[in-house]
Amino acid sequence: MRRRLAVLAAVAALLSACTATHGPDSSDKAGAPEPGTLRVLASSELSDMTPVLDRVRKDTGITVRPTYMGTLDAVELLAEGKADGRYDAVWLSSNDYLRLRPDAAREVVSETPVMSSPVAIGVRRATVRALGWKPEQVTWSQVERAVQDGRLTYGMTDPARSNSGFSTLVSVASALSGAQSALTDADVARARPRLKEFFAGQKLTSGSSGWLATAYERRGNVDALLNYESVLKGIPGLTVIRPRDGVVTADYPLSSLASTDTTTRADVRRLTDALRTDAVQRLITTRTHRRPVVASVPPASGLDTGRRRELPFPGRRSVADGLLDSYENELRRPSRTVYVLDTSGSMEGDRLARLKSALTGLTGDFREREEVTLMPFGSEVKSVRTHVVEPSDPQRGLDAVRADTRALTADGDTAIYTSLEKAYDHLGAGRDTFTSIVLMTDGENTAGARAADFDSFYRGLSARQREIPVFPILFGDSDRTELEHIAELTGGRLFDARKGSLDGAFEEIRGYQ
Questions:
Q1: Residues whose CB falls within 8 Å of the CB of residue 100, separated by 6 or more in sequence, listed in order
Q2: Residue 475 in contact with residue 444, Cβ under 8 Å?
Q3: CB atoms closer than 10 angstroms to residue 116
């Protein structure tokens, strides 16, 4: 079922920033080495470091050319040896994943922390007052009780794709299990009932911190966010709390790749030294709300300087895998997704074959308890086929999805908006699930309802239904403006399969389901 940490496939990158390439699909485009330029494989959240890197370039003459992707995906890339010759250094939020993957760990050398940010809880100020919390005294157990009492809901990023999400999961599991050292399998098993109660409060999931913050502000009915302190400090209206019973902290180490030469490693050391100067450390903490690692530089104003227990990362890969598997298949709310699939006449041939291949591959990523609906369309919706991946017999549901995928045929015009309306009708008012719609089309709307009709339809939905986002995928000759409007209207996000792969786009959306 849920793919383990050991076999997570690299997916499309998140976020954009100046002079950067993005994601595994662009790893072949990292380019040949250039004098004075370092090709850096970086966690996606580091896109906010552009002003800092501009300052370092002026100070040292070194230009950083980052490629951004999720931490787990970067580890997989390293483990497979695909970074050799393409990158000069790696700069992740944490190298803890590397330590769980010896095949990845041996690819890096000279690890040096640059800054830090602990996991924290950002809670609406009104909620803090209603709960009677004193921020400096809050524990994870208090958060759990507030969730149990129905007084606290929250959002967090997907631990399977985000280091902030996984670090949060480790923090909660360590605290609620009472572990005195690195988590063990026994700790996870002991904490499972309490973790189940804790994650009942999760109302938002996301593959990126940026979209999570946007969805939080759009909905307005979620009480808190769990993420890195640096991310939460950038969101207005939150009281940022570091639970006093401990958190996991990201230390953002910069490391040379073992495959590089001595000259390149010397440049990486120069870059590291420049990032750790007092002036640049002050710039980092002021601009990004991360904490300096140089003792002579104080944290930016507003960052709590009280000491907190630092929770260790799991020391064994099996523990990390087991914790992630429990979260995906048991602890979190189940997913409910409608895949609205363009099978019009223009999809005939290679495009339909690529769609079938991508969907078939995606079934290996479906979670237990997940409800999957395939809704192929042409001039109208052709069929509505729903399957549940039951824990008692997950293979049956997966086989049914694969059989429906093989049966897809291409014909007809392209009724995008009519089909989306059918998807919303199918989902109804929603259940206690992470609910979404994925729209894949290779062309413009040519039949049925028009854009204005859909806008009117959407505005007429209940408040609960309007919380269901549409995640459109650009493919073939689809209209970016049309699909961007759908994503913006519904609170979704647009994914581009024209620059990467259709497989990668479907896989990246998984972080939002």
A1: 5, 314, 316, 317, 320
A2: no
A3: 20
Q: Given a cut of 70, is residue 18 above it in pLDDT?
A: no
Distance (Å, rounded) from C-alpha 205 to C-alpha 238?
18
Please check whether residues 322 and 205 belong to one and the same domain.
Answer: yes
Distance CA 303, CA 223 (A): 21
Radius of gyration, CA atoms only, the chain: 23
- DSSP string for 284-320: HHHHH-PEESSTTSPPPTTS--S--PBPPPPSSHHHH
3-state secondary structure of 340: strand
Residue labelled with tokens 């850096």: 40
In degrees to the nearest 10, what's the CA dihedral of 277, 281, 282, 287? Answer: 140
Type of residue at 82: K
Domain identity same for 449 and 473:
yes
pTM attached to this predicted model: 0.88
Average pLDDT over residues 106-129: 96
Please check whether residue 380 is in contact with residue 415, taking contact to mean a CB–CB distance below 8 angstroms: yes
Q: Which two tokens stand for residue 481?
A: 């403006």
CA distance between the termini of the chain: 16
Please, are residues 504 and 25 in contact by the beta-carbon 8 Å criterion?
yes
- Given pLDDT bands bounded at 50, 70 and 90, which one contains residue 185? very high
Among 318, 357, 387, residue whose Cα is nearest residue 503? 357
CB-based contacts of 267: which residues, under 8 Å, 6+ apart? 36, 38, 62, 88
Long-range contacts of 302-305 (CB under 8 A, 24+ apart): 302/233, 303/229, 303/233, 304/136, 304/240, 304/242
123 CB neighbour count, 10 Å cutoff: 28
Handedness of CA 145, 149, 151, 152 (dihedral sign): positive
Calculate the average pLDDT of the chain.
90
Residues 205 and 121 in one domain: yes
Residue 178's CB is within 10 A of a number of other CB atoms, namely 12
- pLDDT tens-digit map of 416-451: 999 999 999 999 976 789 999 999 999 999 999 999
Report the CATH number at residue 382: 3.40.50.410
**Which helix (H) or strand (E) covers residue 39, if one does?**
strand 37-43
The range of the structural domain enclosing residue 508 comes to 334-512
Mapping DSSP to helix (H, G, I), strand (E, B) and coil, where does residue 468 land?
coil
